[in-house]
Please model this.
Amino acid sequence: MKIEPDGGGKQMLAAPQQNWRDPNGEDGRIMQTALFAGHKMMVITDDAGGFQLGYLNFKAGGFKTMEAAKKAAPEFAKRVLARMSDMVAD
Model:
């Protein structure tokens, strides 16, 4: 089986990956997003004064700073993708 990205997938994969920015053009203290494997990940403040990551309808929280959450983002993305892979039956 040959797989390849469709038109939208090609565009998302060609965009800069893991390049954090505030999608609202603000200072990024409340929220930032970046593409990981062509899909948007978000880090945002939580109700407890910390930060949480969101990716493909999964989340991880408890980060004390925006930078700590962003540093954890690659491992979080890998774990989300591995968990999703495990959810597919043969």
Remarks:
- Residues 22-86 form one domain.
- The chain has one domain: 22-86.
- Residues 79 and 85 are 10 Å apart (CA to CA).
